[in-house]
UniProtKB/TrEMBL annotation:
Its main location: membrane. The lineage of its organism: Bacteria, Pseudomonadati, Pseudomonadota, Betaproteobacteria, Burkholderiales. SMART domains: PDZ. Its cofactor is Zn(2+). This is Zinc metalloprotease. It comes from Azohydromonas lata. The keyword Metal-binding applies. It is found in: Membrane. The gene is rseP.
Length: 452
């Protein structure tokens, strides 16, 4: 229920602010607005205010502002000065651009408010990197605290959280740039500089495997046993809460994540293999035989020991002042916009998977998750979707705001509007492209939910 409510609020706010941008600038330019609707289809609620009918309609995936226009309905002589199509070119362009601009301005404010409120983030102390990955070759080790990053080795940006680090790595990977990392141990000692050679990934498809090849470790957690389930494999082996695991089958255990991976990978030919664990308990070293149990079937079968492994990752509060928060809002909106366009460009040339396109089911899921984490997280999510909506609507596709702006650019350069015949075919083509994109997004959503 909370997921559905968060999704409805997300759509309602973002659609309303987008259409309000169109509405507000249209009124400022003297255009008569006939209807302001959140949603499409059958009207569920309406209220007349002056010349404008405000409505909420059945289908919530969008909205519209209907203006007085000679191309849609006859216009009385005394109202011609209020018709959209008779306004100067710059005013028509401003009205169309105001919707996406409103979404981008909203994103700036949402990011700023979220940073003013502050969020509880995971400290950027990493576990063991993925074996054979760029991170491992760069020299990252379990327990490394990433203090700052740099693209050129001169200008360094402080890293405040794991999410912040992943964002910096994502931007560098999309741009095919090397990223320098300033790392220390978990206590802040023994500082050293490392180079994550993301240039070597240039031209590779952006997908889940790319993230694996980069190989940043999960947040660091000590390999210490937590709650042990009675009667489970861990309990039968004699493991107790508080035991620190030193080695498994003679191989040192660096962190909780790598220990969990070893347990899961203990299944061979459908049978969990016995493991020899060396643990430290109250200053003594013990050797224990652990027999994992089988969980799942076929290729998805993994080992389990029925115990919680590791401590919760260390967290920090990330909060900014009034000016810094607003600057952060502008910067993050710009970065997300640029990254969105980069991703779209890579999808067009086949360097990014079309599986990266998400639809309403994924948005609803993330809306619910962020809302459950707290208001500041939800505001950050809302800002992200608002940026995406603003950028998407500026794409030069017929039926989108960006398509109309391209018509006006043509009119400004040639001195004549796009012909009715061309408009007709462009609208049909745009509708087909949008239908294909929506179908692909929904297909990706269903594939994620079905585990494909």
């Amino acid at each position: 229920m909370s997921t559905l409510l968060a999704f409805i609020v997300t759509l309602g706010v973002l659609v309303w602010i987008h259409e309000y941008g169109h509405y507000r600038v249209a009124r400022a330019c003297g255009v008569k607005v006939l209807r302001f609707s959140v949603g499409f289809g059958k009207v569920l609620w309406r209220r007349q205010k002056g010349d404008t009918e405000f409505a909420v309609s059945l289908l919530p995936l969008g909205g519209y502002v209907r203006m007085l226009d000679e191309r849609e309905t006859p216009v009385a002589a005394h109202e011609r000065h209020q018709a959209f199509n008779l306004k100067p070119l710059w005013q028509r362009a401003a009205i169309v651009a105001a919707g996406p601009a409103a979404n981008l301005i909203l994103a700036v404010l949402l990011y700023a408010v979220a940073s003013w409120m502050g969020t509880q983030e995971i400290k950027p102390v990493l576990g063991a990197p993925v074996a054979g990955s760029l991170a491992e070759r760069a020299g990252l080790r379990a327990g490394d605290w990433i203090r700052a990053v740099s693209r050129d080795g001169t200008d360094w940006v402080d890293v405040e959280s794991v999410a912040d680090l992943r964002w910096q790595v994502t931007q560098a990977a999309m741009g095919g740039e090397r990223l320098q990392l300033m790392a220390s141990d978990a206590q802040g000692h023994a500082s050293r500089n490392l180079v994550l050679d993301l240039q070597s990934l240039a031209g590779q498809e952006v997908d889940a495997e790319l993230v694996q090849r980069i190989g940043l470790g999960a947040p660091y957690s000590e390999p210490v046993m937590g709650d042990v389930k009675a009667g489970g494999p861990a309990a039968r082996a004699g493991l107790q809460s508080g035991d620190r695991v030193l080695r498994v089958d003679g191989v040192p255990v660096m962190d909780a994540a790598s220990l969990r991976e070893r347990i899961m990978a203990s299944v061979h030919d459908g049978v969990p293999q016995p493991m020899r664990w060396q643990v430290e308990r109250r200053g003594q070293t013990l050797e224990l035989a652990v027999q994992p149990r089988l969980h799942g079937e076929g290729p998805r079968a993994v080992g389990r020991v029925d115990a919680y492994i590791g401590h919760p990752a260390e967290t920090v509060v990330v909060r900014r002042g009034p000016v810094d928060g607003l600057v952060q809002g502008v910067q993050r909106t710009w970065e997300v916009s640029a990254l969105t366009l980069q991703m779209m460009g890579k999808m067009l040339i086949g360097e990014a998977s079309l599986k990266n396109i998400s639809g309403p089911l994924t948005i609803a899921d993330y809306a619910g998750q962020s809302a459950n984490q707290g208001l500041s997280y939800y505001l950050g999510f809302l800002a992200l979707v608002s940026v995406s909506l603003g950028v998407l609507n500026l794409l030069p596709l017929p039926m989108l705001d960006g398509g109309h702006l391209m018509y006006y650019l043509f009119e400004g350069l040639t001195g004549r509007p796009v012909s009715e015949l061309w408009l007709k075919w462009l609208q049909r083509g745009g509708a087909l492209i949008l239908l294909l994109l929506m179908s692909l997004a929904l297909s990706n959503d269903l594939a994620r939910y079905l585990g494909q």
